[in-house]
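User: Can you predict the 3D structure for this chain?
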Amino acid sequence: IVIDTGTRPKPLAINGAQNVPVLDSTSIMELGALPEHLIILGGGYIGLEFGQMFRRFGSEVTIVQTRPRLMTREDDDVSDEVAAILRDDGITVLTSAMPERVEEVGGGRVRLTVRTRDGERQVEGSHLLSATGRVPNTEALALAAAGIRLRENGFIEVDEYLETSVPGVYAMGDVKGGPAFTHLSYDDYRILRANLLGGEKATTRDRIVPYTVFIDPQLGRIGMTERQAREQDRAVRVAKLPMSAVIRALETGETRGFMKVVIDAHTQQILGAAVLGVEGGEIMTIIQVAMLGKLPCTAMANAIFTHPLLAEGLNSLFMMLDD
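Assistant: Here is the predicted structure, written as structure tokens:
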């Protein structure tokens, strides 16, 4: 038995939310008219992608984030640069802003009151989008009756083979928790197919999960952040190259962002990378392949990349580690 029931948007729990229409990541795609002013609760990748998209459609956009930074899983320099890009696009970004209440103010408009470090602030808009996370669709499955354990957040507990607490019952996809990406769900399928049909012992242990935030320019991410590596007391070296130093980025006219790579100082192995720039996801994938092949950083520094592709910037990035 394989369980894959997916997730749904997390209910919005602030005063007055039950009395006003609140959009989620599904209903916002069904709008028949462009929002005049879209207020977005949540500073993760869903909120940022929708925010920039509707800003470019012509909406005024305000993003409200309760934490001190957007995209808190990223390094500070990455999230700060993303915020700068969004503000450069004309988006209002409020951080350390705790929603207190929401109310209708007539004409179909809503008013959101937030508490900030500078006191109470009100934001009035035409539409409110909740992008504060997702919860699993497990409550209707009666999993306890089958002896299948859940984690505290309601996701199904699985081992490295995706097997639940009941032998012979497996869970794949978003319902087991972790990063909610289509490509990760497909890799879950690959593991189960190999084990259940092929007699193999494939595992999720040590798999490297890439992801891309589809803002413009893109943010491609793979492996550890610098913060994660240092929290593990690893000796690391970090190289960082602005996209303004990449010839192809100059040619396209989009030089915002940077490439950043984290290296194990002892083994010279690539621990992780962030590429915030034109086609950042594609450039990140090149680094991912190098990580899968366990290439040392010197191999990337000495490789020949076609001029004038964006990938050519990887030469300059990894050569910075020679200093």
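The two ends are 55 Å apart (CA to CA). The domain at 211-322 is CATH 3.30.390.30 (Enolase-like; domain 1).
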